[in-house]
TrEMBL record:
SUPFAM superfamilies: P-loop containing nucleoside triphosphate hydrolases. Keywords: ATP-binding, DNA-binding, Nucleotide-binding, Transcription, Transcription regulation. The keyword Membrane does not apply. It comes from the Bacteria. GO terms for biological process: regulation of DNA-templated transcription. It holds the Pfam family Sigma54_activat. Coiled coil: none annotated. PROSITE patterns: SIGMA54_INTERACT_1, SIGMA54_INTERACT_4. This is Sigma-54-binding protein. InterPro entries: P-loop_NTPase, Sigma_54_int, Sigma_54_int_dom_ATP-bd_1. GO terms for molecular function: ATP binding; DNA binding. Residues 29-98 form the Sigma-54 factor interaction domain.
Length: 98
């Protein structure tokens, strides 16, 4: 993961995106407006901390990309595992996840 400037805007790239069989194939996140830049700063502050993070949003808004960014910036040695919570029954969610 690296941070570059592209057209004067911060660009977070994932050079190894093609190597992972679990990759969602996105290669970059672009943080242009002030709100998304604040989000990037918050992600970078959260990454090294041992805290659970819940990312919510509409389908297709980049929640998994944000989660991957947080995971890569952490000291966690395990693989990143993405879970579609919409596919889990509310009745069994606790048992499935914890």
């Amino acid at each position: 993961m690296s941070l570059h400037e592209n057209f004067g805007q911060p660009l977070l790239t994932f050079p190894d995106a093609e190597k992972s069989p679990l990759s969602i194939r996105a290669k970059a996140l672009v943080f242009i407006d002030p709100r998304s830049r604040r989000l990037r700063e918050e992600m970078e502050q959260l990454a090294p901390r041992e805290l659970p993070v819940l990312i919510r949003g509409e389908s297709g808004t980049g929640k998994e990309l944000l989660a991957r960014h947080i995971h890569r910036g952490s000291d966690r040695s395990g693989l990143f595992v993405s879970v579609n919570c919409g596919a889990i029954s509310p009745t069994y969610a606790d048992a499935e996840l914890f």
